[in-house]
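Hey Z.,

So I finally got round to the zinc ion thing we talked about over coffee. Here's the setup:
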Amino acid sequence: MEISAQQGDITQQQADCVVVNLFEGMTAPKGGTGALDQALGGAISRLIWSGDFSGEAGKTALLYAGSETPAPRVLVVGLGKPEAFDLHAARQASAVAAKATAGLRGVKTYATVLHGAGLGGLETAAAAQALAEGALLALYRPPQYKREASEIGPESCVVVEFDAEKLPAIEAGLEAGKAIAAGVNSARNYVSEPPNVLYPAEFAERAIAMAEATGLSWSVLGKREMRELGMGLALAVSRGSAHKPRLVILEHAPDAAADQPPLVLVGKGITFDTGGISIKPSENMWYMKDDMSGAAAVIGAMEAIARLNLPRRVIGLAICVENMPDGKAYRPGDILTGITGKTTEIISTDAEGRLVLADALGYAARYEPAAVVDLATLTGAIGVALGRQAAGLFANDEALLNALLVAAERSGERLWPMPMYAEYADEIKSDMAEVKNSGGRTSGVSSSAKFIEHFTEGYPWAHLDIASMVWTDADANPVNPKGATGYGVRLLVELANAL
Ligand code: BES
Ligand code: MN
Ligand code: ZN
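And the result:
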């Protein structure tokens, strides 16, 4: 959907639908909503008095106009209680409105007021950014493999603002929102793609195409380069697969920051996780196509960072491998050596994410990073601990941990700090090697982070276990339709902005 801004009067706007808003508890609509109410002879006031619509967040009401306005439909979207209103609420309201118009067959274009920039007290550009993000994230549809195309939503949205002086700020905000939504929706696309389509080499091709389009520098390492670097852990995970591994490297280095120590983002990119020889039960195994969501978030965030042209240097590493059982596959009991030289005993070939991350994190050290953050669908146990409301945050650096918590708060992509007690490392001591890749059942979450910590020498580091956040089976949140959520992109953009 195209989104643009125009100076104008919402009551005079030509569109299939006009969107206005209402705070909960308001009895007399104000601003653009008030003007439209007057033009409609009090129809919005009567709607409120009827008790059918109170402005509750997430709710909408639809009115059909006669000749009073050029637009035949008026959609009123609830903003919720004024005291609870913030940027997240503005984004949600825009998402709800976009979804509602998508449900109306006759609506190809809609015009809308900015949510929350008047009485809501939001800064104009920020409100415009939230509007673009909300609408574009809500209208996301996964790639379609049906022979007959199904219905699509509105084609364009115009933000109408009476005050011409506000237009530049609105336009800037819309552009930022579009850049971020593009990154999130790209990440969703990568995750949604079936694993027969998106295998490591294909994933790398898509990242290259994105880098070429946005001006990021890139390089991709294949099996030979990975072998030369000694990436024995990632290569072992890859050995059972017919698909060759890839390490995708993306760099955003604005001229003024070309020599700045970079923020390095590392993503787990298991394009399908069968568990390998430690094979998973077949029920629900298809979900394991989302085991590359960490890499998808990193590549999506790099896209947004490039489109926003953030002033800081950022490098994205996506380690892309398929984990399959085979005669050539690695096995439980194997002892392997990765890029850092540390020896690792394999207890479970299903604890493969930490192995590929170990080599990518070892590789990251060469950049002398300001900080490294890895994102991985690492354990089922994180969902047992935190449910679907937050990703687990593990860090060995207080400043980085706090920066991530702030970014989580600002983006609405929640993080919850998890312990990194030294004792958790005891459970992954091996009798023969320096470390083993799985501990007992009682420490699944923290011992996985302790394993990764072994391979993170020389820089501040944080690990985000995002396993329970990357997919949703229900349209519970208008901003996150059913399917891949693109979790992490907005969080990483906020972090890159702040560091
Ligand atoms: N990709 C899985 C983690 C996962 C499980 C994500 C369920 C989303 C839903 C990871 O590779 C894995 O298999 N982890 C094991 C670790 C165990 C073998 C130590 C797990 O969580 O069971
Ligand atoms: Mn696994
Ligand atoms: Zn996995």
